[in-house]
Amino acid sequence: MSRKNKIVLAIMIAIGCCIFGYSLRDVPLHSVLMNLKDLKWWWLLVAFGLMLLSLACEALIVRLLLKKHYPDMRWRDIMRIPMVEQLFNGITPFSSGGQPAQILALAQTGVEAGQATSILLMKFIVYQAMIVVNFVICMIFGFHLIAAKMHVMSILIVFGFLIHFSVIAGLLMVMYWNRFTRKLINLCLTPLKWFKNKDLYPKWKAKLDEKIDTFYQESLRLKRDKKAIFKIAVITLGQLILYYIIPYFIILALGVHHVNIIEVTTLHVLIVMVISLFPVPGGAGGAEFSFDVIFSLYIHSGTKLVLAMILWRIVTYYFGMFLGMVALVQKPKRVQQVDLTEE
């Protein structure tokens, strides 16, 4: 990890501590201690276990994509990939550092950089598609829970959906309407010609053309291997469900009963969609605010609501970053690619 990344990590932890401290400002200390004493630790362990299983599902996807060319790669080294991703997603705006970090982690195990990029691109396409599928289902069954009471949150949720939908729509356009997409992007780049720097337009055009070509070539592979894509889609769906149901068990750990697991899971999906709108690493501030607003529908005790938010952030955000820090210092075993040309 670079010095800059270490500084950002320290800043994010400090921001998190400040947010937690601010959230606890009106909560009596004796009330916090009493609720912690009565905490159902078993349910909290289940929440941590679900987070680990979610990461294991992502590692399984990487394994499926690599096993043909790298059958000797150890499971511990594969599990390291999503953990490193968690760390760099957590310290970069819009989780933009996760993909490059995974490529580097795969390169450390001996996977060629171009092949690593191709694999992660395939994973990203399926992941985005499953996010949209999950969200559409939750919009149908859960949007009414907050639409009437929280108009501002409703707008943010719809806006978040439109962004994710635009991403998957753009990916599909490259896959199926490559020439049209290329012309459309070139048209969008036209304003760059108006700048005094004449190299700006050709530089960006060449860069985007290269990205489109890489993605298009990978999309051809996607279309050919429908069986593998179906497997990855199912595992990704399972990964997301495991992650989305975590708040339910945190609520149970705090002794709040009579909550519907489907409704809680649906609301968590909507929260994650809102978090994606905030450019701050980890959606700091926006994540906590969204959780407080939405889950106040279920948790009427101010102390328990704040503790639920803190525990949720620890399990879904800081725990992943801690695992990423541990994974980052582990030295993976390098493996050789199997030559399949003789088969």
UniProtKB/TrEMBL annotation:
Keywords: Antibiotic resistance, Cell membrane, Lipid metabolism, Membrane, Transferase, Transmembrane, Transmembrane helix. It is a multi-pass membrane protein. The keyword Membrane applies. The keyword Transmembrane applies. Pfam families: LPG_synthase_TM. One of its GO terms (molecular function) is phosphatidylglycerol lysyltransferase activity. GO terms for biological process: lipid metabolic process; response to antibiotic. The chain crosses the membrane at residues 41-66, 124-146, 152-177, 228-254, 266-284, 305-329. Its EC number is 2.3.2.3. One of its GO terms (cellular component) is plasma membrane. It comes from the Bacteria. Its main location: membrane. It catalyses: L-lysyl-tRNA(Lys) + a 1,2-diacyl-sn-glycero-3-phospho-(1'-sn-glycerol) = a 1,2-diacyl-sn-glycero-3-phospho-1'-(3'-O-L-lysyl)-sn-glycerol + tRNA(Lys). Coiled coil: none annotated. It is found in: Cell membrane. Catalyzes the transfer of a lysyl group from L-lysyl-tRNA(Lys) to membrane-bound phosphatidylglycerol (PG), which produces lysylphosphatidylglycerol (LPG), a major component of the bacterial membrane with a positive net charge. LPG synthesis contributes to bacterial virulence as it is involved in the resistance mechanism against cationic antimicrobial peptides (CAMP) produces by the host's immune system (defensins, cathelicidins) and by the competing microorganisms. Belongs to the LPG synthase family. This is Phosphatidylglycerol lysyltransferase.
